[in-house]
Design a protein that fits this description.
Number of strands of chain A: 9
Oligomer: homodimer
Structural class of chain A: alpha/beta
Radius of gyration of chain A: 17 Å
Helix content of chain A: 25-40%
Keywords (chains A, B): Hydrolase, Serine esterase
Largest interface: A-B, 23 and 23 residues
Pfam families (chains A, B): Esterase
Strand order of the largest sheet of chain A: 1-2-3-5-4-6
Distance between the termini of chain A: 32 Å
Enzyme class (chains A, B): hydrolase
Order of helices and strands of chain A: EEEEHHEHEHEHHHEHHEH
Catalytic activity (chains A, B): S-formylglutathione + H2O = formate + glutathione + H(+)
InterPro entries (chains A, B): AB_hydrolase_fold, Esterase-like, S-formylglutathione_hydrol
Largest sheet of chain A: 6 strands, mixed
Chain lengths: ~280, ~280
Amino acid sequence: MLDNLSATKVSGGWHKQYSHTSTSTHCPMRFAIFLPPGASQTNKVPVLYWLSGLTCTDENFMQKAGAFKKAAALGIAIVAPDTSPRGDTVPDQDSYDFGQGAGFYLNATQAPYNTHYNMYDYVVNELPSLIEQHFPVTDKKAISGHSMGGHGALMIALRNPKSYTSVSAFSPITNPIDCPWGQKAFSQYLGDDQSQWANYDSCELMKKAHSNEFLPMRIDQGDADNFLVEQLKPDNLTAVAKQVNYPLTLNMHAGYDHSYFFISSFIDEHLSFHQLYLQR
Amino acid sequence: MLDNLSATKVSGGWHKQYSHTSTSTHCPMRFAIFLPPGASQTNKVPVLYWLSGLTCTDENFMQKAGAFKKAAALGIAIVAPDTSPRGDTVPDQDSYDFGQGAGFYLNATQAPYNTHYNMYDYVVNELPSLIEQHFPVTDKKAISGHSMGGHGALMIALRNPKSYTSVSAFSPITNPIDCPWGQKAFSQYLGDDQSQWANYDSCELMKKAHSNEFLPMRIDQGDADNFLVEQLKPDNLTAVAKQVNYPLTLNMHAGYDHSYFFISSFIDEHLSFHQLYLQR
């Protein structure tokens, strides 16, 4: 059951927030959806799933990306989930990069996190089912995200290539097993057995991708991003892509940082990129 | 002296925040400026001043309006001041609609507010002087704003028609002397002599406007705005405009509310409106 929290007209369409009790994360989850003008049961639209970064909720992208004008023109719905389970019963740490706001889009295996921290199941299965049941959308799906959410988008697309038409990311963590953010999260959510970490690492997953299931993949990265060298490491992923011939385009942008100002500068291009494949 | 607090590339231009000690408000003031790509001492650009609404700072418009792509294309700089003086030494009330965050763009005459609450002088005189001294801009200025800031834009343009090429507003308080927000603010900032209030009331000012100093004026208003009937009252201003033949266009929009989602839906049209006059 979906509880409608808000409904706001924007760019001729509607931005709406909902809450529901998740069977994946065993807590109330909030998400937001943008429905372009004209979306209806007789005119269903495809969906771009957007995964946000550390500390974010469903609101950051919707308020700051400036995506609605283009999405309205292209007829694409956008769904933004939260970045983790939330609430007093959900284990947390006093840390911006672990716990609430930092679910890393995986299924935790370690106590006390394994009850609630199942964002992989939530984003891959539960949320699309809910969206397709309750809104005028087709089953055509693309996926994108920023930073931790860029990791989520790439990793989820690589593991589920038949579920998405295309994948993109802004400033993604491309190789979490090889950076401090990813190591901190994976060691606590997944435990010390690093063989389990590879299931959530885009570089490792791309090495094993089947060429008949390759997806169009676009990444945009600013070269003035404070996290570029230590945490994001796009060159690690492009090296794998070159090795396996994965159709990855990495666009480096001089002078741009890690903020939503960067995302807002290029989100229209990402929407147009996905539209090429969503409309097929 | 300007203290640069941030510089972020966006839409090919730059978003920058500055702090300085104001001679008008006698406290540190923060403002933000967007400079479009290519702005330089040999290619100066005109400026749109944006005045925000209750509770806002320089950040709300810059983060949520989605204005930069269009402003970059048109070659318009945007300057967003704060909405009041700030700081521990600045008198305040525990109220969202009075005191800090609610300066109403006037010069207060009543103690204890009259030392710091001089946002009229700040926006009309001090800030443009600073901007024209420190940035690659021409002296061509337009002005716009939202809600309390819409009041500010209309009122300031009506009082200083030679300083601006054009004026626009989203969901403005058009007749503050006739609504609870305005009466609460004006009575405490300006005192009980209501003849003084008329100096800051757009309806009263428009009645006295000289026809040879009329400015192009555009207002956009959503009809699902919770504040429309009690606080904003655009019909009061259109009645005066009709009476004096002021060139005001009011666009009512079905289904839109008072939020930045509304602003983001129509900001491109406001920028194009101002560009018509800024480029002359």
